């Protein structure tokens, strides 16, 4: 795959859609392509999260380990971002991620991403706005479900 292919993949990701072509090129230049086969773990629940992954092809299962065994909580396909908050803050993985078949991902490093945001403050402002809107939406969904748990 070429740099242009990586730019195309990242351009389809919602959190990057306001980035300029120059910013997308810089972001794509610092990515790493990884391939996984069925059952291989991208990362484990509780691991330190220092990067995000964008699914290029295949399906990744997000899993939680429970006393009753491993439970699939979600499945993510092409264009999905895994661990996007790891690009901005130091955190731990809330779930594990396992390839359900042949999977290819683009790995984004936090250090490079933060450097890009420092060089392009307007990108940081757009990302802040997008994340704030996402958080507001999530809080509204949680509040709408609150009566079901009372």
Automatic annotation (TrEMBL):
Signal peptide: none
Domain of life according to the entry: Bacteria
UniProt xrefs under CDD domains: CAP_ED
Residue span(s) of domain Cyclic nucleotide-binding: 15-117
Annotated Pfam families: cNMP_binding (PF00027)
Gene Ontology CC annotation, any one: cAMP-dependent protein kinase complex
Protein name: Cyclic nucleotide-binding domain-containing protein
